Amino acid sequence: MSLLDTAPRLDRARPRTSHLAELEARAVHLMREVAGQFDRPVLLFSGGKDSIVLLRLAERAFRPGPFPFPVLHVDTGHNFDEVLEIRDRLVAQLGERLLVASVQESIDAGRSPDPGPTGSRNRLQTATLLHALHQGRFDCAIGGARRDEDKARAKERLFSFRDAFGQWDPRAQRPEPWQLVNGRIHPGEHVRAFPLSDWTELDIWRYVAAESLEVPSIYFAHEREVVPRDGMLVATGPWTPPLDGETAATEQVRYRTVGDMTCTGAVRSAAATVDAVIAEVASARITERGATRADDRFSEAAMEDRKREGYF
């Protein structure tokens, strides 16, 4: 069953110059370019808001047929339960194939170091992703990165070239005049495709509203036990216990982005509906990753360094 069968569509009577319709059309075109130019693409899916939008765009591009690619999640093992639940349910609803690449398996196999039970596994996703792409012989990975998230992601092309080692060189990317994309690669190389490059966090939420998309409940205001840490509110749990000198307290919070629990912070918020979130995001003066991701906040080069190694 398609999610399109259970959710309202964008109003096709609206002028095609509307902002969301234009973004949707460009993203759908890029997905079809991926299907046309590559032999074994794969769609990266985390269960977060951006990848849920990617699923809807894939439906727009390829329904009523099946997706011409499987769906791949790189699982750190330190995920929010609410996100994993919606990941499994949405992909099952679509009848598509979900592949899960496990960071824990990479640790067990010696491909990644063990950071310990409370250490962040976010950076360890790189080796796990590259191994999964190699094992699956995937030549293109469709991701949900947006240019407004981070300075390094602003350097990405729509078709972003990776060498035979999975590495990225921002100075060696191909020009894309008029959004013309070139997917020509040699064996062993691959491309990361970013249909949401030109979208903003606000665009994502407006599209979620227009399409009545279901997103994980942690994006909305709820009560959760958290500790202040590194200028963020970190949820307590098996991998994030209070440290010496920290005191846990129950706060009303929501998440602007989801990732490894050890490095993803919440923000105080009363936004309990999509409309309230849209209003809150419209007034925000810092990106969601800059506000709530510990692995990005303390170094402008952090994301670029990881991307050069093969990160998302």
Write a structural description.
This protein has 2 domains: 3-204 and 303-309, HUPs (Rossmann fold), CATH 3.40.50.620; 215-297, no CATH class. The protein has helices spanning 19-37, 49-62, 81-94, 103-108, 125-136, 201-211, 274-282, 288-292, 294-297, 302-309, and strands at 41-44, 71-75, 98-102, 140-142, 159-162, 190-193, 222-229, 232-235, 249-254, 267-268. It has a 6-stranded mixed sheet. Strands 8-7-9-10 form a 4-stranded antiparallel sheet, with no helix packed on it. It is α/β, with parallel strands linked by helices. The chain starts with 18 loop residues before the first helix and ends with a helix. It has 10 helices and 10 strands.
Write the layout of secondary structure elements.
Layout: H1 19-37, E1 41-44, H2 49-62, E2 71-75, H3 81-94, E3 98-102, H4 103-108, H5 125-136, E4 140-142, E5 159-162, E6 190-193, H6 201-211, E7 222-229, E8 232-235, E9 249-254, E10 267-268, H7 274-282, H8 288-292, H9 294-297, H10 302-309
Parallel strand pairs: 1-2, 1-4, 2-3, 4-6
Antiparallel strand pairs: 5-6, 7-8, 7-9, 9-10
Helix pairs in contact: 1-2, 6-7
Output the keywords.
312 residues, alpha/beta, Rossmann fold, six-stranded mixed β-sheet, four-stranded antiparallel β-sheet, 10 helices, 10 strands, 33% helix, 14% strand
What would CATH call the class of the largest domain? Answer: Alpha Beta
- CATH names the topology of the largest domain as Rossmann fold
Q: Could you tell me the radius of gyration in angstroms?
A: 19 Å
Q: Largest sheet, described in full?
A: 6 strands, mixed
Shape: globular
Average pLDDT for all residues: 87
User: What is the distance, rounded to the nearest whole angstrom, between the alpha carbons of the first and last residues?
Assistant: 29 Å
